[in-house]
Amino acid sequence: MIITRSPLRISLGGGGTDLPSYYEGNNGFLIAGAIDKYVYLTLHETFVKELILNYSKLEKVNKIENIEHPIFREALRLLNIEPSNIEISCMADIPAGTGLGSSGSFTTALLKILHCYKKSLIHPEELAEQACKIEIDILNEPIGKQDQYIAAYGGLTCFEFQKDGRVIAKPLKFSENTRHELQDNLLLFFTGYSRSAGSILKEQDQKTKQSNTEMIKNLNHVKEMGLASMDALESGDLNQFGKIMHEHWIRKKERAKNMTNPKIDEWYNLAINNGAIGGKLIGAGGGGFLMFYCKDKNRLIKKMNNFGLEELNFDFDLEGTKLI
Q1: Which of 118, 181, 196, 271 to pair with 187, CA 20 to 30 A apart?
Q2: pLDDT < 50 regions, the chain
Q3: SS in 3 state form for the chain?
């Protein structure tokens, strides 16, 4: 049996500038952190001469074109693996649609397990690019490259998205004390809302392709805030990082009408008035997890729990997609 795992992620600055519709004309930049919540895949050979795929559904097929799950289908096609006597199963620590990049994590874990099955090595950069090829180029999802790259690399990483499609990955250069302080005071709360990232990002993607002045201006500013977040983190000024996160959320809400809702806004304001310096919805928006950097985490946790929001405890993952 082969087992792979791929980490989920949080965005720490510059999110939204990783879509091709933006970076192909302006270059993009963001910071992401992999966390110790994972998507797991297992693969083992079976006696029956068919391909079994076990996820939220169960598929049994003899031909690639009969596979319903698009990422399974295109990954097997990309690696030239014909359906045979293998079974692949998927499980995850956190459900999909919660803003933590589960689709990118699933795709990198799947590609990793298929490369292991073929006994071929793959570098994180190539792994991420193959995942992007499937999700963005082949399946035409209106998403960015952040999820696939941070899942493949792990850690707390800065990504530069070049106009020609190249991605430059560099680890965030900050002290261990700063990393521990960040981890200790960065809190996640589940809103209870799930959503499709593609549906949220579609409006941004279309407006950017149409060279909408306000959208481009918004994303330019978000990129500048991503760079400012890097400076704040690397200098150890975490209060400034929290303030930038608050400004980022204000800008993010301007990009799509379904980015937030009255209940999420109520929870956000509650947090700001009870120990949070800044925060935002993780991922595309519309639901999932609210993330806050706080100066009084005990007060914040107590208040959010009183309003029914459960905290997700996490550590940072420093390994990326790996064979277990």
Answers
A1: 196
A2: none
A3: CEEEEEEEEEEEECCCCCCHHHHHHHCEEEEEEEEEEEEEEEEEECCCCCEEEECCCEEEECCHHHCCCHHHHHHHHHCCCCCCCEEEEEEECCCCCCCCCHHHHHHHHHHHHHHHHCCCCCCHHHHHHHHHHHHHHHCCCCCCCHHHHHHHHCCEEEEEECCCCCEEEEECCCCHHHHHHHHHHEEEEECCCCCCHHHHHHHHHHHHHCCCHHHHHHHHHHHHHHHHHHHHHHHCCHHHHHHHHHHHHHHHHCCCCCCCCHHHHHHHHHHHCCCEEEEEECCCCCCCEEEEEECCHHHHHHHHHHCCCEEECCCECCCCCEEC
What confidence tens digit (pLDDT) does each residue in 68-94 have? Answer: 999 999 999 999 998 889 999 999 999
The pLDDT tens digits of the residues spanning 263-279 come to: 999 999 999 999 999 99
pTM: 0.93
